[in-house]
Design goal:
5 strands; five-stranded parallel sheet; 9% strand; alpha/beta; 244 residues
Length: 244
């Protein structure tokens, strides 16, 4: 789906009401310099089918919000030759990020580091494949950001709000997901604030789009993984929040 057809579809579903809303999410714009590195980290939502064998190719950014953000930034800052990387891996949780953090984050030396993590920390628990509590998520995430700031003292952190929509597996198992998921979202915000990070309000963004008339299934059919329309909405909100 290209941008023109997305806007046309959004106008019919109500998403356009959110896209056209003036948002002052970022306190100030971030200045970019030639060769600056931007890194996206997370799970399958960030991974979005990226080519892991050739991460520097266009396919290495996947088909999700990082690829839309990268395309826009390369267009808007063509002369800066920005280096934009995606190291999201499907199925990963906070402990998985911790195991690969030196190779997949510290060594890349990003100026801006964006992290979206948390849905698998609860989903895998509900499926009986993980025993991490909400507090394990909070404490592990806190430790990861402390480690990051020690290794990259000048990095700008952007912590993305974990989200789900009331469709697919989430709607079918609502009583299992909530209020547990809300607790984890609250902890993500606490961790972000403690680290002095930029907060990217993805759950609020999706809630507002649904309130404006968009069907949750049009944004994430299974309630977790965004559609192209959902990813485009994320890309727009990320740029407004981060200030670039």
């Amino acid at each position: 789906m290209n941008r023109r057809s997305f806007i046309s579809t959004a106008a019919a579903t109500g998403t356009a009401a959110w896209l056209n809303t003036e948002c002052s999410l970022a306190a100030e714009k971030i200045s970019l310099a030639t060769g600056d590195v931007i890194l996206f980290q997370g799970d399958s939502i960030t991974d979005a089918g990226r080519n892991k064998k050739d991460p520097v190719a266009n396919e290495g950014l996947g088909r999700g919000y990082p690829s839309y953000i990268a395309a826009d930034l390369h267009r808007d800052y063509e002369n800066l030759k920005l280096q934009i990387h995606n190291r999201g891996i499907s199925g990963h949780k906070v402990p998985d990020l911790d195991k690969r953090w030196d190779r997949d984050c510290i060594d890349i030396k990003p100026k801006i580091l964006s992290i979206l993590i948390g849905v698998n920390d609860i989903w895998h628990m509900l499926a009986g494949r993980y025993d991490g509590t909400a507090e394990v998520y909070r404490d592990g995430f806190t430790a990861l950001l402390e480690r990051t700031k020690k290794g990259l003292p000048s990095v700008t952190l952007a912590i993305c709000e974990p989200f789900v929509l009331m469709s697919g597996t989430v709607k079918e198992n609502e009583d299992k997901w909530f209020p547990e998921f809300d607790t984890r979202r609250k902890y993500a915000r606490e961790v972000s604030d403690k680290a002095g990070a930029i907060w990217v309000p993805f759950q609020k963004m999706f809630d507002d789009a649904v309130a404006a008339g968009t069907s949750p299934g049009d944004l994430a059919r299974d309630g977790v993984h965004p559609t192209p329309a959902g990813h485009m909405l994320m890309a727009k909100t990320w740029r407004k929040s981060v200030g670039i």
